[in-house]
């Protein structure tokens, strides 16, 4: 029997580590910022997929949690989290039945829609419950999902109000490309343009006498800008709790570095082989998401450069590293992209300094359905 | 309650599908080929991480299963699979204790080593059991893990034979870069050179009077070539059971396509949004591994081109597709790289035609430790 894990170095690698001090500081900075500006905070759970984290965010003031998918929302609801907003349309008969089951357990869950067919399907399936709350997804230049803002959105809103068992609550207003637009001024221009379209659509709907209490959107990259816009009611950032290399590079105001949040998430690996100038670690494609064009960056090992070396291996060039690196040494890395990296692991090791304070299951890992 | 899943179209997307006829045909082709050439077959479990598949491979004639990691081997052993070979060194005190626990349950497990320190650690930790079987990992031009073949390997072999509780069984001889070398003639040259070095090392060791019953290596790309080499005793291919785009492109003999195995694995996605010329599906970075420089390829939808559109979305250009594509349509894809794609899912849906014959847990998913 292995000894119980108590300290950072007891955790079998590769593993996800969370620095709790930094995590809590990130949460507190975001919540203060939004509270001061009178915006609601519905952080995106697709980043962490971890009910324990969702609960901590609610305790810090979040009105609930966004999820990308129905199956994530089912997991969160099963752990008692309410105020769920599923940011992608739920499509197909079997999933729509599950959506109704979910609304029975968690009646304030908001479902995003973008077509008459989907609205009608939801309304028909909801016969056995009082009804479903729906948010209209508007396409803010991103060209991925959502209906065009303005007149098409108004037409679909009218359609929603005519269906018996769906209740229109507002607009899902996420411009995915704005989140990582750099530098800051370009990001400001992009997200302001997008969010103002969403707000204009809100006003158009309200002029018809239809209440539109919710305009939900924004991201870790744009929350500062979006939260200054009148008519945007809530912000749904995800990555700020962890941060990653991608968000580290987007830049802050006045061409500064982006320092709003601290890097709280790392992946720990172990050196399993050495050869001249190279240390081979036990972390490859199955330890880090590979969707970004940059490799993980070693922490506290200046000069070291990671390169992918297969599913289970990384090759670290240590020819410019000042100290000796031995087999058995543990090296931590900043992941290129946090969300899909977290999705590779079953748990997050929450550390206070070097002490393991908790091990949190990533209960919605793999729940992409 | 959703209806029980019976058919292909009942499976919530995104999901992994396995065509059982093709899978069985792939297994039968590989086992016949190796049986006829007198080579043992120890397929690599890192590909599937699925005990049900490992059992089927053993039933078809495999002597056991390779695993990349200790934690995978623990899962397989817990499901009754024996003849395990862990192809990466187990490093660090806590993991070495677990290795001994594993050998208590599955005494024929083979551990790969490449340093005196690791051999000594294993021998010392094995005090409470009869001993451990160790395979010496040799570095065949790949420059990742393993000791140099020839004299360094012989020296370490002698060291192993002097330790009380480890038993030398042979050579782990995997040249990772050979597997995907294209075209076939270049692959033949590369793997032949590598495997002949392994065999020469075997002969060197045997001339010292040390038995070296095992030379284990090879891959889906090189099994044909490696299995013709005298002195190579067993082949450890992984991907042939599933196949993927990467292996589909390596080419066969005489510059033909690589047709040794059929594409048995697909990912099914659903169209969740439509706009002119584009279908948006519910499968992105969390549904397909992204480590290869090519995107998933739609099956049975000629002209369609997939592009990544985030963690949970893909954007399919359908402007050259002849038929209508509607919201709710299901599209299957060949994954770029099977191993890390399988690692994203909790289960494999095994299909006989359109009927779900079984749902197999990917029990070692995420077990990269």
Account of the protein in words:
The structure is a homodimer of 369-residue chains. By secondary structure, chain A is of the alpha/beta class. The first copy, chain A, has two domains: 8-13 and 261-361, Lyase, Ornithine Decarboxylase, Chain A, domain 1 (Beta Barrel), CATH 2.40.37.20; 20-255, TIM Barrel, CATH 3.20.20.10. The first copy, chain A, has ten helices and 17 strands. In chain A, strands 1, 10, 11, 12, 13, 14, 15, 16 and 17 form a nine-stranded mixed sheet that branches. In chain A, helix 3 (70-78) runs parallel beside helix 4. The longest helix of chain A is centred in the middle third of the chain and has 24 residues, at 184-207. The two termini of chain A are 37 Å apart. Chains A and B meet through helix 4 and strand 10 of A and helix 4 and strand 10 of B.
């Amino acid at each position: 029997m292995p000894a119980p894990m108590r300290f950072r170095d007891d955790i079998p690698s590769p593993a996800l580590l969370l620095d709790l001090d930094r995590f809590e500081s990130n949460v507190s900075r975001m919540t203060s910022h939004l509270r001061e500006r009178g915006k609601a905070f519905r952080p995106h759970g697709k980043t962490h997929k971890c009910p324990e984290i969702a609960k901590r965010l609610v305790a810090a003031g979040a009105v609930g949690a966004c999820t990308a998918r129905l199956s994530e929302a089912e997991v969160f609801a099963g752990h008692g989290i309410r105020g769920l907003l599923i940011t992608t349309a739920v499509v197909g008969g079997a999933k729509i039945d599950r959506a109704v089951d979910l609304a029975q357990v968690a009646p304030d869950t908001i479902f995003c829609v973008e077509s008459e067919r989907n609205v009608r399907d939801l309304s028909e399936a909801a016969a056995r419950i009082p009804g479903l709350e729906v948010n209209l997804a508007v396409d803010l230049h991103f060209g991925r999902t959502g209906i065009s803002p303005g007149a098409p959105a108004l037409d679909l809103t009218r359609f929603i109000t005519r269906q018996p068992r769906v209740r229109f609550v507002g607009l899902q207003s996420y411009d995915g490309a704005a989140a990582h637009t750099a530098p800051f001024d370009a990001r400001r221009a992009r997200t302001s343009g997008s969010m103002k379209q969403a707000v204009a659509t809100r006003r158009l709907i309200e002029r018809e006498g239809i209440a539109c209490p919710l305009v939900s959107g924004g991201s870790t990259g744009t929350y500062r800008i979006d939260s200054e816009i009148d008519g945007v009611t809530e912000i749904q950032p995800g990555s700020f709790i962890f941060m990653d290399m991608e968000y580290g590079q987007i830049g802050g105001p006045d061409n500064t570095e982006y320092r709003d949040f601290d890097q709280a998430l790392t992946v720990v690996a172990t050196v399993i082989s050495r050869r001249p100038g190279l240390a081979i670690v036990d972390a490859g494609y199955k330890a880090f998401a590979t969707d970004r064009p940059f490799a993980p960056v070693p922490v506290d090992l200046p000069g070291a450069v990671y390169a992918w070396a297969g599913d289970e291996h990384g090759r670290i060039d240590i020819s410019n590293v000042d100290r000796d690196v031995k087999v058995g040494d543990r090296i931590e890395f900043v992941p290129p992209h946090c969300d899909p990296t977290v999705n590779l692991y079953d748990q997050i090791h929450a550390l206070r300094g070097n002490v393991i304070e908790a091990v949190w299951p990533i209960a919605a890992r793999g729940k992409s359905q």
